[in-house]
From TrEMBL:
Keywords from the named record: Membrane, Transmembrane, Transmembrane helix
Pfam family, one: Flp_Fap
UniProt name for this protein: Flp family type IVb pilin
Organism: Azohydromonas caseinilytica
Entry's transmembrane regions: 28-49
Amino acid sequence: MSCNRKGSTMELIRHIKDFVREEDGVTAIEYALVASLIALAAATAMSGLGTKLGQMFTAIGNKLVTT
């Protein structure tokens, strides 16, 4: 029975070492961070653009009403 425990412990240690060496998860996290930064930048840019477009259409609408 102690041989089985030793084998299980060694297998667990091997799995932990493999997990630490694995880089796929790190790469996925890096891509997620880059994608979120791009989305944040796009949302910020669109917000400012949307405000300016809204003001422009309001000004055009006001001129059409008064003409």
